[in-house]
């Protein structure tokens, strides 16, 4: 169901740049921003949009575009920003969502896994933030940056050390960037999802099945049942907060990381 819109969530004449928007949370938030009137540049690693992204582009031919980007490549981030500026002339909102996942026992966690996770989840996120923030400062108008953290950034997990560390870094960068950019009228916040039923969870479940000797599907079922509300979230459950943080309704909110996790983390 579409998220109900009010005047305070009107994004008309705003440009949003979304990374990791080829599916799951990123695609759901892109649709919400488009419904709210924003122009959206959707990006993901694939050279061409997948079927779900292409369908969204067809529904919003005038206000949605796609541009491939590998956020681990700084030149690729520059090309993404330039493509957005060439299209709309400015960037008002960054939904900084691109991320990858891996897990392994601590004693077996590899450098290759470490490098992959930190290249995308930390380096990619930070330099996308920095480069877009420079553009926003040059524009001399308010901007909003929304980083995607995770409940994994709130505490360590025995099998998920690298990933947890990357998401803890996202929370820290959110706070530092918010303080650094406040004088420029740029607000920086983060969203910390819990277990959200996205296509990535099939890969997560398979990894837990391997290392915890579980049947496929069991980990996904168990983590959903352990949520205080009793079920895994859906990508649409992130959209309300993502819209609030992008809109005028959150004008006095910055440096915060909000849990959207069914009660898993209380803070």
Automatic annotation (TrEMBL):
Residues in Ketoreductase domain copies: 14-194
UniProt KW Oxidoreductase keyword: yes
Classification via InterPro entries: KR_dom, NAD(P)-bd_dom_sf, Sc_DH/Rdtase_CS, SDR_fam
Span of the signal peptide: none
Gene Ontology molecular function terms on file: oxidoreductase activity, acting on the CH-OH group of donors, NAD or NADP as acceptor
PANTHER family (UniProt xref): 3-OXOACYL-[ACYL-CARRIER-PROTEIN] REDUCTASE FABG (PTHR42760:SF115), SHORT-CHAIN DEHYDROGENASES/REDUCTASES FAMILY MEMBER (PTHR42760)
Designated name of the protein: Sorbitol dehydrogenase
